[in-house]
Amino acid sequence: MGKIKNIYDKLRNRWGVNSFWQFLLIMTVFATTGFSILYVRTWVFDLLGITKDISIFWRILLSIGIIMPIYQILLLFYGFIFGQFRFFWNFEKRFLGRFAAILPFRKKKENQTSVNKDA
User: Fold this and answer.
1) Residue 3 falls within a domain, yes or no?
2) Which domain, by its residues, includes 36?
């Protein structure tokens, strides 16, 4: 039981959660979204004609490219339904910021510590 409490405390502090009930709602949103995406993935793959005959490599790539954005939208939707939209909106902004940081074509910020050219 000590390990679970340790994980709970770490997540609560990291996320800035005020109460056990808020933490429980957040975990419920994650669980509901994860469960829902299983059905959505099956439906989308059937709609697009993606079968098990296609290589696992391509199915994984398609899952990342198609299902991941749908997951993010569902996360915000369920966050709204469970009254935790603000938490998940901030969560999404952090996630998308980290995701954009790995993209090769993103704009690079100017080095703010560079020497002033006018001096």
Assistant:
1) no
2) 22-101
* Distance between CA atoms of residues 5 and 63, nearest Å: 33
Dihedral (Cα; 114, 115, 118, 119), 10-degree rounding: 160
- 107 located within any domain: no
SS3 per-residue string spanning the chain: CHHHHHHHHHHHHHHCCCCHHHHHHHHHHHHHHHHHHHHHHHHHHHHHCCCCCCCHHHHHHHHHHHHHHHHHHHHHHHHHHCCCHHHHHHHHHHHHHHHHHCCCCCCCCCCCCCCCCCC
pLDDT tens digits, residue range 30-69?
Answer: 999 999 999 999 999 999 888 889 888 988 898 888 888 9
Q: Count the domains in the chain.
A: 1
